[in-house]
Amino acid sequence: MSLKFSTIEDVWGYLEAIPKFQDKGASAANFALENIQNFCESIGNPQTKFRSIHVAGTNGKGTTCHLLESVFREAKYSTGMFTSPHLLVYNERFRINGKNCEDSKFFQNFESQLLKFRLTFFEISTALAFWLFAEYKVDVAIIETGLGGRLDSTNIINPELSIITSIALDHADVLGNSLEEIAKEKAGIIKDNTPVVLGNIAEDLERIFIDEAALHGASVTSVSTLKPELKNGAVYLNNILKPIETQFLEKVNVWNVAVVHQAVKLLNHTFPITEEEFRRGVAVFKGAIARFEKLNPSLNWYFSGAHNLQALESTVQTASKISGKEEVVFVLSFMKDKLQPQLKDVLSSVNHCLYYRLPGVRSASYEDVSKFIDVKPITENTYQTILKEFETSLVIFVGSFYFYSTVRRWVKENTPINLSLPD
Fold first, then answer.
1. Which of 58, 402, 385 is nearest to 252 (CA)?
2. What is the pLDDT of residue 417?
3. DSSP 330-376
């Protein structure tokens, strides 16, 4: 009898058949740890075979992961990084030393366990990441939570450090309808005697993390005391004299840089990193894809995966700062659960708002969005004509990360200069 996973096509077919959060929402997830724990135990507990840093938060966790990885690699450590969702190809979720991981024998090796435990899409991705990082014997793995923290599949690791970047209203149907409830879920990644770094978190919410950390004998450091600022692309922290050079446009990234600076300091006994190595790691980082990424060198067009109000406010502020005399055009695409009445106020300064509906039951329709903001539809039949009209404008494609691959196709196929795809 042939193996179910005898070819890579078998693997893709298996993965494609599994319901995904991007399409089905919470029904495609498993908010419990028993299944992933049992599966990982059956394959030798790979999550115990490498050192890790665990990163949770509403906004900023992806950029923080990329920054950490860049700094550790600059200091000559071998690195693994697990992030989600993937934007172009599945294996971008798993990076070894900054490169997408090559196809592995994971599915062939563990066919019987996969068929027995029937993992969700994200559970499979998490277990695969753990196995890859163990196989490659990385010095340190940067692990981003998928959703929340307490019951997230990644939360079976015992990291060297826990990071919570920010708290905002998002995924309320799963994490809770208040900032306090969401904070408690994300505080669930705090482990015994493991230091915690807090990013851009309101003072009244910090108490939730401090109290949880006290139960675990864990120290807490808040980077709010560093009072980070962005001036001409450089980050200023009040505990260091020399500014930290970056390639960031969005002011909100000062918090991510501050978090990484504090993380490196706290882990220096395990992973010695010089101040110069830290600075080089931050300076060479050009930004994570889809995080206010410039899409084409000849056009003033960007993609921002700002899919909640806090992130959207940052994107609007940055657009206003860089627009000059140009018209500002936002091409939006949201999931239903992201729609809130405050959208109208946040987008009030934008000259033109267009809306594209993604496939899937979670995506918001044009009619849904029109209840909150004034938008014009953009479709596969009209995007070429509409975008041609705005070639000399500042255009921000903004919203769901699942919109990214569509936008990249539009830009690549319909502008004079093809954009260069990142590694």
1. 58
2. 42
3. EEEE-BGGG--TTHHHHTTT-SEEEE-PPSSTTBPPHHHHHTTS--E
Q: CB-based contacts of 362: which residues, under 8 Å, 6+ apart? A: 22, 23, 24, 25, 335, 336, 337
Q: Where are the alpha helices (DSSP H) in 170-299?
A: 172-175, 179-186, 203-215, 253-266, 275-283
Backbone angles phi, psi at 162, to 5 degrees: -115, 140
CATH class of residue range 291-413: alpha beta
Yes or no: say if 115 and 4 are a contact pair by the CB < 8 Å rule: yes
Would you state the structure tokens that stand for residue 373, as one six-digit string?
A: 């903001």
Mean pLDDT of successive 10-residue stretches along the chain, which has 423 residues: 68 82 56 93 98 96 97 98 92 94 85 92 96 97 93 97 90 67 95 98 95 98 95 89 91 95 97 97 91 90 90 91 87 88 89 92 91 93 92 93 93 58 42
Tokens encoding 390: 């705005």
DSSP assignment string, 264-313: HHHTTTTS---HHHHHHHHHT----TTEEEE--TTS-EEEE---SHHHHH
> Under a CB-based contact definition with an 8 Å cutoff, are residues 326 and 392 in contact?
yes
- Give pLDDT, residue 422: 42
Domain edges within the chain: 8-283, 291-413
**Could you count the other beta carbons within 10 Å of the beta carbon of residue 162?**
29
Secondary structure (H, E, C), 64-127: HHHHHHHHHHHCCCCEEEECCCCCCCHHHHEEECCEECCCCCHHHHCHHHHHHHCCCHHHHHHH
C-alpha to C-alpha distance for 55 and 144, rounded to whole angstroms: 5
SS3 assignment, position 391: coil
The domain defined by 8-283 carries CATH number 3.30.70.1340: no
Which region, left, alpha or beta, applies to residue 122 given φ > 0 means left and ψ of -120 to 50 means alpha?
alpha
Burial (Cβ within 10 Å: 0-12, 13-18, ≥19) of residue 30: middle
Cβ-count burial of 234 within 10 angstroms (0-12 exposed, 13-18 middle, 19+ buried)? middle
144: exposed, middle or buried (Cβ count in 10 Å: 0-12, 13-18, 19+) = buried
